[in-house]
UniProtKB/TrEMBL annotation:
Highest taxon in the source lineage: Eukaryota
Protein's name in the database: Uncharacterized protein
Species the sequence originates in: Caenorhabditis remanei (Caenorhabditis vulgaris)
Compositional bias per record (Basic and acidic residues), positions renumbered to this chain: 176-189
Region (Disordered): 168-218
Lineage: Eukaryota, Metazoa, Ecdysozoa, Nematoda, Chromadorea
Amino acid sequence: MYLATWTNALRNLRENQLELIQSLKDGGFDSKDGYAPEEVIFGRRTIAPMDLVVETLQPKYTDEKDLVESITEAIRECHKDVYGRLQTSQRTSKKFYDENVKTKTQELNPGDKVLIRLFTRGKLENQYSEPVEVVTTTATTATIKNQKGRMESIHKNRLKKFMEEVATSGQLQDGQPEKPKDQQRRDSEQPVAKEATRGSSNQQLRRSRRLQGKPADQ
């Protein structure tokens, strides 16, 4: 009953709406490989009521052997085509990433001091280790000598060069990165704010003593 009602309703649509019907019918297709999920798995597309209006061609089989051979060949061709399209999509995405997103790997030399990013620590804890020395480097990794005296190879994206002159001036201590400028400004303003609050309290106290008829400096 539902199928008949749906089919009759679609057949009553005007000619200028057939393009919309086709787009709705193809809504389950993957934009990267151009195939519906069931076609990749089973080798056949689902026949929807809209196919009756659009009148798409459907495959016909003479017997079970012809059915199995046709579906097997369809799956093989589908997988070959999908693999090729996915490879092309991956190359395009990688090219865009390398040209627009990927950051330049920092240059490290043997003897440099570096900090190691520790991903296992909590958000409120120090995210970097104590300064360690770089022994050797490659294009993407660096071999460092850790606090226990052991050699360890770490990817460069986990390393940050330790600036000794900054640490000596007091802006970088205990292997921690320099504070943001807004945080430094707030820290410098705190003593001024406390002094202003103390002065305001003294003025209120003297005013209260005068209202009570008492000496202001008592």
